[in-house]
Amino acid sequence: MADTVTATIRYVQRDESSDVSEKPYILHYSAPDGFPQNNFTIKPVHGIRVHNFRTAGISYEDYGIGMASIDSSSMKPECFDDDDWVERVYLPELHRGVCAALGAKDMTIFDWMLRKRAHSFPVRKPGEDNGESHQPSLSAHIDYTTAELASRLPRYFGEDKDEVLSRRYQVINIWKPLTGPCRDFPMAYLDPTTVDREKDLIAVDEVFPTVANEVFQVRWNPNHKWYYMPDQLDSEVSIFNAFDSEKGQSLAVPHCSFDLGDAEGSAVPRQSIEVRAFIFY
C-alpha cells in the first residue's frame, strides 16, 4: 500500500467580478431569475499529495484526526435505509466505539446523513439511481464556524445548556463507508496544523429555504498536508474534530471527498453515513 497518492482537491475561489464586501453564499434551492446561485467558485487544484493516515503516526489529540472500530458484522448496506434501525442499532454501537477510542465519558448525537453516489457523479443525470440522494462533498470545508455552533447550543440543549457545557466537550464528525474497502471517492482530511486560520478559511452562508448555516470553505495553501485512510472498512469509522471547548477551532479539520482515479480500480459507487456529535470528557 503506497504511503501517498496524487489527487485533485477542490478549493474555494472568490469571483473577482463580485462585490468583495458581499459575504460569500450559496443557495440550496433554485435562485430567482437573474440572481446568482452563489458568488464564489470551487477551483480544482491538481497534483496534491494525500498521505496514508495509517502509517503517519499522528494522534487525534494532537491533530484532530482519528479512527475507531465498531462491530459491523450485522450491518448490511440496506439496513441503513431504515431510520429506526439506524437509531436503534448503529448509533448505540457508534457511541460505544467512539467513546472507547477517545477515552470519552459520553456522546450526544445531533445529526446524521446518508450519502449514495450516483453513477454519473459529479455530473448528475435526471432520473438515475441515487440521483436524488446526497452526493459526496468535493470542496474542502469545515461544517461549522464557531459562531454557527454557538447559535445552535440552545436548540440542542435548551435550559440544560450551561450545565452541559460546563464540562470539557468537543464537536466531532464521524464517517464510515457502508461497504469496504472504500476506494470510491474516499474522504481526505487536511492536517489542521498546516492551516492558516486567518487566510485559508472563508466563512460562507449555506442558504436553505428556511435557514442559513455558516460554514468554512478553504482556500488553497501550498503548505497544506492531506491524509486519507486507504481501503477503509465498514468496521472502521474515521473521527475528525470540528470544535474543542478548550482549544476552539485550532484543530478543526477541513475535509472533502476526492477521486482516487486509476487507483480506484473497479470500485462500486460509494455509500456512506456521517454523524455529527458532541463528545464529553
UniProtKB/TrEMBL annotation:
Q: Which family does it belong to?
A: Belongs to the asaB hydroxylase/desaturase family.
Any single GO molecular-function term of the entry would be: oxidoreductase activity
UniProt superkingdom: Eukaryota
InterPro entries from the xrefs? AsaB-like
Write down the PANTHER family for this protein, in alphabetical order.
Answer: BLL6449 PROTEIN, OXIDOREDUCTASE AN1597
Protein name from the UniProt record: Methyltransferase
